[in-house]
Amino acid sequence: MSAPNESPQLNEYKIRASRLLKALRGDDQPQALAAAERLRIIPRYRAMSAAQILAGREGLQLKHALQVIALEAGQPDWLTLKRSLDDNPWEADADLFYPQHYGAFLNHWCKTYEEARALLDRQGGYLLPYRRQFFICQADFIKAIGLDPADPDWERIGYDWIRPDDQHARDRLWAKLRANR
Fold it and tell me: Residue 174: inside a domain, yes or no?
């Protein structure tokens, strides 16, 4: 279940989710009821009893167990929990930042965040991630990936996706980027 370079803590959370799902699907009734009670942390299951949740357990999936684990860890969802623990949280969504057919744009590529940040400070632009690299792009590129370069949230994050001044502003931009894809 563990991916290369995955944090041990993230791996532990995945194991917990697997165990929760196994308990929900298992024959041990007290253990299944306790697992179903934990599922009530998810808003859509909050009004249901553990017995009602178990009655519909054939529809329960790993994503539900992962959501429970994320909420128990104080995060709003699994993706947020995963990103908070990953060394490179944007790698899985690299194509959202740099689709394959966007090679016509002249962007400045950097191997390290520090190099990219220094370049951003010197010349401006927008600092974005791509796999294990970073690049500085201009407004035309931001438009091409489906975002508004004049969106006030860019200024709020300091035009730096990796270490934003305002996490909530980046979350809003992130939601817009995902919705446009």
Answer: yes
Residue 127 structure tokens: 């600092």
CA distance 106 to 104: 6
Whether 149 is covered by a domain: the verdict is yes
Nearest Cα to Cα of residue 136 among 169, 172, 106 = 106
Structural domain harbouring 56: 8-85
Spell out the per-residue pLDDT of the chain, length 181, in tens: 445 455 667 888 899 999 999 999 999 999 999 999 999 999 999 999 999 999 999 999 999 999 999 888 888 888 888 877 765 555 556 667 766 666 667 889 998 889 999 999 999 999 998 877 889 999 999 998 889 999 999 999 999 998 899 989 998 998 898 887 6
Place of tokens 């940040």: 117
Least Cα distance to 69 among 3, 6, 18, 8 occurs for 18
Residues 111 and 49 in one domain: no
Pair 101, 174 in one domain: yes
Largest CA distance in the chain: 63
